[in-house]
Amino acid sequence: MAKTNSGRFFEDYSIGQVLHHAVPRTVTVGERALYHALYPARHALYSSDEFARSCGLPQSPIDDLAAFHVVFGKTVPDISLNAVANLGYAEGRWLQPVYPGDTLRSETEVIGLKQNSNGKTGVVWVRTRGLNQRDEVVIEYVRWVMVRKSNLDAPAPETVVPDLKKALAPGDLVVPSGLDFSKYDFALAGEPHRWGDYQIGETIDHVDGVTVEEAEHMLATRLWQNTAKVHFDLTFRPDGRLIYGGHVISMARALSFNGLANAQMIVGLNGGAHANPCFAGDTVKAWSEVLDKAETGVPGVGAIRLRLVATKGGEAFALRGPDGKYSPDVLLDLDYWALMPI
Fold first, then answer.
1. What is the pTM of this model?
2. 9, 55, 131, 140: which has the highest count of C-beta atoms within 10 A?
């Protein structure tokens, strides 16, 4: 029996298969410091224990996307070690904050399979849950990934494409216990714009940009213990190391502070697509569109649905060409719900 792990290939998956991923991870304040060193992340709730306490939380949580990356990274050796690319996300929910000292682990169920027409790859849909040391689910999401076949003669499985929600309803969102924005300090948060100041259909150019460095993206990907070969091994993808899609998500989210500083907590992930590959040397910029708004029933807390688009220096608000396909400058198209003071 081989002692090393070569990863699963497309023919190794089956509908209903449950994978319990190795290596639980205890997160610390060091996670926050390194996350803020990697990205221009400045949302006050994730920067200050005192600000978090003023909003009803016991302390500042780990950034919502940092928690997502930790949970995601656990899954890579079992799901996407032999991936060509991660394709999209749906039905993501942050069910409770992750605090320093929490230990996270991940488990995944295979919910869809479809072999591609070339017979060399297939798409695998999975639902992943991140659990803490009390076996409480803190994050759950669906993603789909294109995976290579090892045995090209292996028969194609029966095609199963899961029926996923196009968007989470406001009632699907979970507001963290104790969160209260009724005494929110807009001066400390960095911007005066509250929930009522944003209109559905409004677009926001976040102005700033960051050029992705090879060393930084590999440091970030190692931080999340993501072992996907496409992010490290030039012999695996000769056109360059593919930047981890989560790195682009976090960069764009951090850039969105300029114009959305009060969109404090991500609580829902409706959908997402990595539209084009990102490589070192690309300059990431971002813009947002307000898609929807909803009240939560929690004091001072509103929900805002946002489209976050990351580009490699492309024109703001240009998403698709005349053919309906993503512009070649578009890296990421992410649809999410965030919590904002009313």
1. 0.94
2. 55
